[in-house]
Design goal:
The chain folds into two domains: about 25-120, 3-Layer(aba) Sandwich (Rossmann fold); about 125-199, no CATH class. About 45% of the residues lie in helices and about 15% in strands. It has helices spanning about 10-20, 40-45, 70-80, 100-115, 125-130, 140-155, 175-180, 185-199; strands at about 30-35, 50-55, 55-65, 90-95, 115-120. A five-stranded mixed beta sheet has the order 2-3-1-4-5. Strand 2 and strand 3 form a beta hairpin.
Length: about 200
C-alpha cells in the first residue's frame, strides 16, 4: 500500500496565493467629457461619480456654465477637439424647457452630427434626483422640486439622522441618492418618460 503524503494546509494556501498574485489584471480606463448648462448642480453631481468601479477607471472632465443648449454642444465639440486626450464619450447636459424648441432641436442635430451624446431634463436637472425615489409622470414647476426632494430623502432616512434640507449645489447629492434612492429605477423611469414624450 502506498503512503499518502498530505501537504500542509498553510503551504497549500501560500502556493495558491502566489499563483493568484502572478496573474496581472488589466485596468481599463474610460475617459469622459461632460459639458453642462448648469454652473453648479450638474457639474457637482457628475464630479461625485466614483473614479473607479471594478476594474474600470473613469476619468471625467467637466465644464459647466449656464449657457444655451446649442452653446453646450458647441462647447463640448470645442473642448473635445482642443484636447490632447481622446475621450471615449462626450456628453452635453442641459435643461430642455429652459430654451425654445428650435434651439433644442438644433442642439440635438448638431450633437448627433458630431458624435456627442445628449442628456436633458424637463424642466430641471432635479427631476433626475426625484426619479431615484419614484416615477414622476406629472408636471412640476421648478420651485416644487426642492420640497419634493427633501420629502423623498427624509422619508428614507432613519429618524435619528439629521433632517435633510436641499441645497441646489450640494456636493453630497450623488452619495445621498445612492444611499437612499435607487439609480437602476431612476434610469428605467427616465427611459420610460423619454419614450412617452417621443413616442
Amino acid at each position: 500500500m502506498a503512503n499518502i503524503i498530505k501537504v500542509d494546509n498553510v503551504l497549500e494556501k501560500r502556493f495558491a496565493r502566489k499563483i493568484q498574485t502572478k496573474k496581472k489584471s488589466k485596468v481599463l480606463v474610460a475617459y469622459f467629457l461632460i459639458v453642462c448648462e448648469g454652473e453648479k448642480t450638474e457639474p457637482n453631481y457628475f464630479r461625485a461619480f466614483p473614479k473607479q468601479a471594478g476594474k474600470i477607471v473613469y476619468d471625467i472632465e467637466f465644464d459647466g456654465g449656464g449657457i444655451s443648449t446649442l452653446k453646450v454642444v458647441e462647447k463640448a465639440i470645442e473642448l473635445r477637439n482642443a484636447s490632447t486626450q481622446k475621450y471615449d464619450r462626450v456628453w452635453a447636459v442641459f435643461d430642455r424647457d429652459s430654451f425654445k424648441s428650435a434651439s433644442f432641436n438644433s442642439a440635438i442635430l448638431k450633437a448627433k452630427a458630431n458624435n456627442i451624446e445628449c442628456a436633458w431634463s424637463n424642466e430641471a436637472f432635479e427631476l433626475w434626483y426625484l426619479l431615484h425615489f419614484h416615477k414622476r409622470v406629472t408636471a412640476m414647476e421648478r420651485g416644487e422640486y426642492k420640497k419634493a426632494i427633501e420629502v423623498a430623502i427624509n422619508n428614507k432616512k432613519k429618524r435619528s439622522e439629521k433632517k435633510f434640507i436641499y441645497q441646489k449645489n450640494d456636493l453630497e447629492m450623488y452619495s445621498l441618492l445612492n444611499k437612499h434612492g435607487n439609480q437602476e429605477l431612476a434610469i428605467k423611469w427616465a427611459k420610460e418618460l423619454d419614450e412617452n414624450i417621443i413616442g
